[in-house]
Write a structure and sequence with these properties.
heterodimer; A: about 110 residues; mainly beta; six-stranded mixed β-sheet; five-stranded antiparallel β-sheet; about 0% helix; globular; B: about 110 residues; seven-stranded mixed β-sheet; four-stranded antiparallel β-sheet; 11 strands
Chain lengths: ~110, ~110
């Protein structure tokens, strides 16, 4: 069974810092990997989708990488802002379903 | 275009009752998946429907069921509610490129 782990569980940084969130998964047989953010009590907002054949994707200040063979993905956030404060979740798509990590709770301090 | 719409947003039910949640996917998306989110277990997969057929199912008891209509709208039903069913229920729709888009969820509280 696919297991997804996110490290760290929580992160607090001052505004303006660059940061990296980590996601690891146990089975490299994936279709794609997707990063989401979730604000308290809300649904999930899609940030980036990386297909299994891709190495990275970029959207604005966000960059996600994927190393399928080692079972790792990172989400890089440049020049963090207080509005980036949220929980970030990675989800691995095996074709049958998404397996989610438990998330990284990010707080950006003004 | 409109996103994924879930109704109702909040529900309070009593143990033993049943509940039906609704999800309208993004126009053109034929895949709808349901997830349960709790503080202790995180996000767990319930089931996926594609073109009115259940394609995949997670490890939940038979009290949890669903269906999908010809317009791709989906409903999830939970019978004989238990306190442990209190959770945020999220649905996601996917198109051909498999990117998932989630609704705002239905917060179910069982008392």
């Amino acid at each position: 069974k696919q297991e997804v782990t996110q490290i760290p569980a929580a992160l607090s940084v001052p505004e303006g810092e660059n940061l990296v969130l980590n996601c690891s998964f146990t089975d490299s047989a994936i279709y794609n990997l997707q990063w989401f953010r979730q604000d308290p009590g809300k649904g999930l907002t899609s940030l980036l989708l990386i297909q299994s054949s891709q190495r990275e994707q970029t959207s604005g200040r966000l960059n996600a990488s994927l190393d399928k063979s080692s079972g790792r993905s990172t989400l890089y956030i440049a020049a963090s802002q207080p509005g980036d404060s949220a929980t970030y979740l990675c989800a691995v798509n095996t074709g049958n379903q998404f397996y989610f990590g438990t998330g990284t709770s990010l707080t950006v301090i003004p | 275009k409109a996103g994924v719409t879930q109704t109702p947003r909040y529900l309070i039910k009593t143990r033993g009752q049943q509940v039906t949640l609704s999800c309208s996917p993004i126009s053109g998306h034929r895949s709808v998946s349901w997830y349960q989110q709790t503080p202790g277990q995180g996000l767990q997969f319930l089931f996926e429907y594609f073109s009115e057929t259940q394609r995949n199912k997670g490890n939940f008891p038979g009290r949890f069921s669903g269906r999908q209509f010809s317009n791709s709208r989906s409903e999830m039903n939970v019978s004989t509610l238990e306190l442990g069913d209190s959770a945020l229920y999220l649905c996601a729709s996917r198109g051909v490129n498999t990117e998932a888009f989630f609704g705002q969820g239905t917060r179910l509280t069982v008392v």
